[in-house]
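Below is how a single chain appears once it has passed through the pipeline. First comes the sequence as given, then the structure the pipeline wrote out for it. We keep one example in the README because the format questions we get most often are answered faster by looking than by reading.
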Amino acid sequence: MNLLEDKVVLVTGGTGSFGKKFIKKALTLGVKKIIVFSRDELKQYEMKQEIQDERVRFFIGDVRDKDRLYRAFDGVDIVIHAAAMKHVDACEYNPFEAIKTNIHGAQNIVEAAIDSGVEKVIALSTDKACSPVNLYGATKLASDKLFVAANAYVGEKKTRFAVVRYGNVVGSRGSVVPFFKKIRETGVVPITDERMTRFWITLEHGVQFVLDNLERMQGGEIFVPKIPSMNIMDLAKAIAPECETNIVGIRPGEKLHEAMIMEDDARHTLEFDTYYAILPELSWWDKGNDGQGKPLPEGFAYTSDNNTEWLTIEQLKPLVEQM
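Resulting structure:
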């Protein structure tokens, strides 16, 4: 079953790393039309040169602007919400802007999608939304809550909302891999803390996970993939084995280890072969599941340091060279 075939799809933040990868994939799946919704005209211009397909339409707009969203959502079947202020430092120093985009923007997406008759909405989240210690994580946690609760607002309408939460997309703009590659020319790689761990997911995996959950979502779930962890020192050795390392300390708003499911969420989470589904604890949830998931054990937490799957230096080397 191909959910995208002959559908009109809109991607907010469509000129970002995820958006471009998702759009290229969607074009191979028989999509009727795909709308790139973003606020940067230069990025849209550059993307037009890269992707020349008459099914791709470009729509300048900001998720903060509800009226513009209503216009963009007219006739849309599926929305992928990838627009966000996502850099920790930028959110810490521009908190009001982060709230306007990540929280108010989420509310605007919900209201426009319901009123426009959109069938399915998937919002991209982050591991930083789990037990957040920075404003970015806090705004994305609030956003996740809005999208889950939105299913109670639809009434008799067909719109359904779900969330996909995963770790750092390695190789995306602003991630550590391109930074390490650039700075290795100096002979010294800065490390925040040698104990630091992170989840690892590629753009390709992230896009496929979103597509898979478009098929399986019933509305209200937060889907979390089972993905490997890596240690920051191993990553540095894989990218720049000849370089020295300089410990610079953890930055404001940064965690030593990331988490995607903590104990309180684990009580209403089901485990599947390749992913977890955090289900709503709200009274309106009666959708159940596909019968294959199993409850998690008491005290379970899914964090980057207690993961059962790890990438070694030798496994990391070919992965980073592809980026």
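The chain has one domain: 8-167+201-226+260-302.

See the next section for the split statistics.
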